[in-house]
Amino acid sequence: MNRKMRGLVGCVVLICCVLNGALGWSKEGHMMTCKIAQSLLEEEAAKTVSHLLPEEVKGELSELCVWADQVRHWYKYRWTSSLHFIDTPDNKCSFDYARDCHDPQGKQDMCVAGAIQNFTSQLLHYKHGTSDRRHNMTEALLFLSHFMGDIHQKLYFQPMHVGFTSDEGGNTIDLRWFRRKSNLHHVWDRDIILTTLADYYDKDVDLLLQDIERNYTDGIWSDDVASWSHCNDLSECVNSWAKESIQIACKWAYKGVESGMTLADDYFNSRMPFVMKRIAQGGIRLAMILNQVFGKSEEGFAAAT
Ligand SMILES: *[C@@H]1O[C@H](CO)[C@@H](O)[C@H](O)[C@H]1NC(C)=O
Ligand SMILES: *[C@@H]1O[C@H](CO)[C@@H](O)[C@H](O)[C@H]1NC(C)=O
Ligand SMILES: *[C@@H]1O[C@H](CO)[C@@H](O)[C@H](O)[C@H]1NC(C)=O
Question: So which residues are the signal peptide here (predicted)?
């Protein structure tokens, strides 16, 4: 690419990020999830992932983990926009795939839980040499990596990731985050992580990432990692990850929160650990999927095909 082209592409990328509101935590959260995942890949999976990535990212999956947000409003990718979230009926605090996993027109499977299964199954066919040539395997990898972040990270909104229908996943609950105007969705999507970075990590994402990694290798979560990544039947696992998110949303995000409130230290200190844990879980589980799909073993998710 010559310099002018690069400038133009940079410009286009910047504009669509701004339009998408994809700056801020959603970006950092996705990047951390992907960095954790890539660091846990076994040899075979690591090779396949770098083979699928476009050359310009030099093998760094995290560079493209917000790609799915960047393209979701492009005409060609409009079909993907409902894949970023699940809206559950108000106050149900549960997830029922048959009831909840559809797009606004009612088309089944078109939600983040269906998408994870879809792109995992495409990658499995790729590994077995039976892939449908119409499907682009680089895109399947990027979608899967992004949606594993979405199903774990956000308080599902419109585009919320798992939230209630009528408030568009917290987007219509306006409030203050410390002294700034925000809304409940943005608090979970962006503000908690940015405040964490600013207050404890000198705004350095790598320092935060190291702390998260320490906590799952020999810190507070080290005994839980095996159960986080245990999965025989992908569709059951995906449903339970969505349920975890909805329960966190009910118990911790929405509870006691009303429009017009100010959320500050109490809310921040008690909720921050959940956000950090979801980033770790998202990364560990993405690695688990990629290792099973691309690994040497023939078992993997054979059932998911
Ligand atoms: C699965 O991916 C294909 C394209 O790769 C797309 O046409 C289809 O709508 C997707 N379905 C889901 C549930 O993501
Ligand atoms: C697959 O998708 C990527 C990302 O959109 C694109 O750069 C690449 O050209 C596509 N490959 C094919 C064979 O269409
Ligand atoms: C890591 O664990 C310590 C407690 O051992 C905790 O204080 C810290 O907030 C955790 N860090 C993250 C990013 O979860």
Answer: 1-24
